[in-house]
């Protein structure tokens, strides 16, 4: 069992004590007086047991005694008739390998303030560091991420940041692995989407209709544009034919270069749709699986799972057109500019004064699958390609009405045969 306070926000006279306890007794104790949000705010990994006591109410000895009794009782409960399931986060914290990793981190980093937090992070996301120097560098970056998270979340803005698998990656490293080079969205300067008199729903979420396929993970390849393409295509196919299909991103990485796409270095969904249209089809994921690397084209017409008749482009920056398309047509491929703090997005409606909205600013393609309003702020509901552990189970919300970060700058959707 682990008694680990998380997500804590206290006043300067609050005393916070962290006890890591297992069936063998107390293993580690940390104390933190004041200091704001505790760093262990990865709510997906660790179950909080928050014990905040006023300094004036208890002596130091009394506080420690209370916590040891509370945690020991929890240990006894887990050993005799515990109702915790095997998936319980407390058991995950002390799962196989964590103690060894904690020891390794403490040997390299020392008993610094964030060392055990870093060890739990590394264990949670399966991190492996080859050398002590690499571990020190990753730890330093991780601490910088914690400071960014703490500083941002204290502001009480419309969205929060949190620890995720990218917390030990520098911005330069992250952008190289996840983002494509800026692409000029010439196809959307003058769109061909036709507005109709259809009444838009107040909110939309195409996931509820069953046409949105599960979130995928692009890995360490700047192929987001291919996942945006397949995400919108898979939805269009399911809408048209009433059945689901998983389409090949790797075919687009390997084969769509003649249409101004660059594999792991970026591309655009509008240009990918043109490739599929003139190529005659796109293979299934099963027939042409994803490798996350640039490769030689292996397209097989007999494995083609979908054909594209045409692509419909949203006029550059026209959020009214985009809302109409997402509201009454189906999910739409969009692109926007990712800046440094977005990689640590956790919840809420993302907004920023620091991102651009010009065609050469956008660097990441995704799929708009709906829209809504949260705490008075209208938003786009968007499917990402960084895995289901990121953000809101792989999704995020982006403020609507300001062409935030260029979300309506490079938008298009396919028409399937």
Automatic annotation (TrEMBL):
<dbReference type="Pfam" id="PF00112">
    <property type="entry name" value="Peptidase_C1"/>
</dbReference>
<dbReference type="GO" id="GO:0008234">
    <property type="term" value="F:cysteine-type peptidase activity"/>
</dbReference>
<dbReference type="InterPro" id="IPR013201">
    <property type="entry name" value="Prot_inhib_I29"/>
</dbReference>
<dbReference type="InterPro" id="IPR039417">
    <property type="entry name" value="Peptidase_C1A_papain-like"/>
</dbReference>
<dbReference type="InterPro" id="IPR025661">
    <property type="entry name" value="Pept_asp_AS"/>
</dbReference>
<dbReference type="InterPro" id="IPR038765">
    <property type="entry name" value="Papain-like_cys_pep_sf"/>
</dbReference>
<dbReference type="InterPro" id="IPR025660">
    <property type="entry name" value="Pept_his_AS"/>
</dbReference>
<protein>
    <submittedName>
        <fullName>Uncharacterized protein</fullName>
    </submittedName>
</protein>
<dbReference type="InterPro" id="IPR000169">
    <property type="entry name" value="Pept_cys_AS"/>
</dbReference>
<dbReference type="GO" id="GO:0009699">
    <property type="term" value="P:phenylpropanoid biosynthetic process"/>
</dbReference>
<dbReference type="InterPro" id="IPR013128">
    <property type="entry name" value="Peptidase_C1A"/>
</dbReference>
<dbReference type="Pfam" id="PF08246">
    <property type="entry name" value="Inhibitor_I29"/>
</dbReference>
<dbReference type="InterPro" id="IPR000668">
    <property type="entry name" value="Peptidase_C1A_C"/>
</dbReference>
<keyword id="KW-1015">Disulfide bond</keyword>
<feature type="domain" description="Cathepsin propeptide inhibitor">
    <location>
        <begin position="118"/>
        <end position="174"/>
    </location>
</feature>
<feature type="domain" description="Peptidase C1A papain C-terminal">
    <location>
        <begin position="200"/>
        <end position="415"/>
    </location>
</feature>
<comment type="similarity">
    <text>Belongs to the peptidase C1 family.</text>
</comment>
<dbReference type="GO" id="GO:0006508">
    <property type="term" value="P:proteolysis"/>
</dbReference>
<dbReference type="GO" id="GO:0050547">
    <property type="term" value="F:feruloyl-CoA hydratase/lyase activity"/>
</dbReference>
């Amino acid at each position: 069992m682990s008694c680990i306070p998380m997500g804590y926000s206290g006043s300067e006279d609050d005393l916070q004590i962290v006890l890591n306890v297992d069936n063998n007794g107390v293993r580690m104790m940390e104390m933190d007086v004041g200091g704001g949000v505790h760093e262990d705010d990865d709510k997906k990994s660790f179950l909080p047991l928050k014990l905040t006591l006023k300094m004036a109410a208890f002596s130091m000895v009394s506080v420690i005694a209370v916590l040891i009794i509370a945690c020991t009782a929890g240990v006894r409960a887990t050993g005799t008739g515990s109702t915790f399931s095997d998936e319980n986060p407390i058991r995950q914290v002390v799962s196989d390998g964590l103690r060894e990793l904690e020891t390794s981190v403490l040997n390299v980093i020392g008993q610094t303030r964030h060392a055990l937090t870093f060890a739990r992070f590394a264990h949670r996301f399966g991190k492996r560091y080859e050398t002590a120097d690499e571990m020190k560098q990753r730890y330093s970056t991780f601490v910088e991420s914690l400071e960014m998270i703490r500083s941002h979340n204290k502001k009480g803005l419309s969205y929060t940041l949190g620890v995720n698998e990218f917390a030990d990656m520098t911005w330069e490293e992250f952008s190289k692995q996840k983002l494509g080079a800026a692409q000029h969205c010439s196809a959307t300067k003058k769109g061909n989407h036709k507005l109709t008199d259809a009444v838009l729903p107040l909110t939309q979420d195409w996931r509820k209709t069953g046409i949105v396929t599960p979130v995928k993970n692009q890995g360490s390849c700047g192929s987001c544009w291919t996942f945006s393409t397949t995400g919108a295509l898979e939805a269009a196919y399911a809408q048209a034919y009433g059945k689901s299909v998983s389409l090949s991103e790797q075919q687009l990485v390997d084969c769509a270069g003649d249409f101004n796409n660059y594999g792991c270095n970026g591309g655009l969904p509008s240009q990918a749709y043109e490739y599929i249209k003139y190529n005659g089809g796109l293979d299934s994921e099963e027939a042409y699986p994803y490798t996350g690397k640039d490769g030689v084209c292996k397209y097989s017409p007999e494995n083609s799972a979908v054909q594209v008749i045409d692509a419909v482009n949203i006029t550059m920056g026209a959020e009214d057109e985009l809302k109409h398309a997402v509201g009454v047509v189906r999910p739409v491929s969009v692109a926007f500019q990712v800046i440094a703090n977005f990689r640590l997005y956790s919840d809420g409606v993302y907004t920023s004064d620091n991102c651009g909205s010009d065609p050469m600013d956008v660097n990441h393609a995704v799929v708009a699958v709906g829209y809504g309003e949260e705490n008075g702020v209208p938003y786009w509901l968007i499917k990402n390609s960084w895995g289901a552990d990121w953000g809101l189970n792989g999704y995020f919300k982006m403020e609507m009405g300001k062409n935030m970060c260029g979300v309506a700058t490079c938008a298009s959707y396919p028409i399937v045969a």
